[in-house]
Amino acid sequence: MTAFEAYNDTEAVQFHDSLSAQTHAAINGMQVREITLPDPIVELDVIDRLESDIMFGGVLIFEFLADNRKDPNVTTAQSLDLLQRFAPVKDLAQLGDIKKVYGLVLSMPTDTIFTEARKAKYVGMIETHLNIFPQP
Amino acid sequence: MNGNKPSTPNRNNRMEAKQIPDLTNALAANAESPSAPLVHTDEFLLGTTEGGEIGELGWNTSGGTFVAQAALVGRPGIVRRRANSNNTVTTLYLCPSANTANYHWGEFVRQLWIVSPLQDTANQQIRLGVTSAVNSLAPARCCMFGADQGDTNWHVYLRNGGLESKINTGVPFVPGNWYKLKMERKEQGQLVFSVNGSTLEVADNPNEPSADGGILTGMSITPRSGGNYDMLLDFFTETIQPPAR
Question: Nearest C-alpha of chain B: how many angstroms from A15?
Answer without folding.
Answer: 7
